[in-house]
Amino acid sequence: MSNTASLRPRPVASEHTPLKARNVAFDWADTPLHWIPGDPDSTHTINVLHLLLPAGERWFVHVYKQVLPQIRDARLREDVIGFIGQEAMHSQAHDDVLPHLERLGLDPTPYTAQVDWLFEKLLGDRPPLLNAWAVPPLPPGRASQWWLMERVAIIAAIEHCTAFLGDWVLNAEALDARGADPTMLDLLRWHGAEEVEHRSVAFDLFLHVDGGYRRRVRTWATAFSALVFLWQRGTRFFMENDPSLPDGKASFREFFRAGREGVLPAPGAMARLVPQYLSRTYHPSRYGSTEQAAAYLAGSPAATAAEARPAQHPAHHATQQPTQHPTGAA
Ligand SMILES: [Fe+2]
Ligand SMILES: [Fe+2]
């Protein structure tokens, strides 16, 4: 028997949960600019989520609609449709925070315009080099399939990070102890719980349609480096444009301080994401707790209020109007 079997991704059994989008809504009227009282650095470090996720998660949905026709496993297809529904809601919920920040004097548009360009143009349906050379859309065939697989792998890599952040925020008791705004905490924990709930979907999809280890390493390096770059840049943007901080500057010292105090994830825990994801036996189900996520969602003010609201059906639209894959694969 080959010993390579011991190096394959090993999921934890019985972690599967049916996914549904919750039609949440948040009232930001009483949320202060520094929603972690007295800690603008940590507030704005977490606020970067509102800059990146609206365009980023819209892009997940865009890419997954293209890959849907290539899924040959009924349960995985259902999971991907559930994932699409949840990510569409996440994108919208974070987008809804931006006008509130603007009302408080912090216009996010200069940064979000760049993030929109990144996801819609650079990571759009043409590989970046073809974009740069203004080559027309890719014809059906191997190049477009290669680029689709590359993007599916990038999403799997990002989802390792979002599952980590989801697990972190569900357990970040320091935020409660500091008196963080309850509405913002509920947004972060509702989102975090759904990230934990669907943490295996993107990686399972990547394994199903490709799963190549070199691609996993390459796209992880790209995605992780890009996230670190965008995050520090976003934090600097908020600190420098915060009207209440005339000399606002992001600092690594504050970042390490907040990590030690549990108000932000610890840098060491973030560094461990790298060997985790690159392990040959990595599977997302081995990290985080579905049970804890379900328990939070059962008591979340936004998620429970959503039960009484008519459901939106982004997943339904995804199945009714899939973007046909350029190869015509079905
Ligand atoms: Fe999400
Ligand atoms: Fe996600």
Automatic annotation (TrEMBL):
Q: Which UniProt keywords apply?
A: Hydrolase
Q: What GO annotations for molecular function exist for this entry?
A: hydrolase activity
Lineage, top-rank taxon, reads Bacteria
Which InterPro entries has this protein been placed in?
UCP07580 (IPR016516)
Chain segments carrying region Disordered? 299-330
Q: State where composition is biased (Low complexity).
A: 302-330
* Listed name of the protein: Metal-dependent hydrolase
Q: Which species is the source of this protein?
A: Streptomyces paromomycinus (Streptomyces rimosus subsp. paromomycinus)
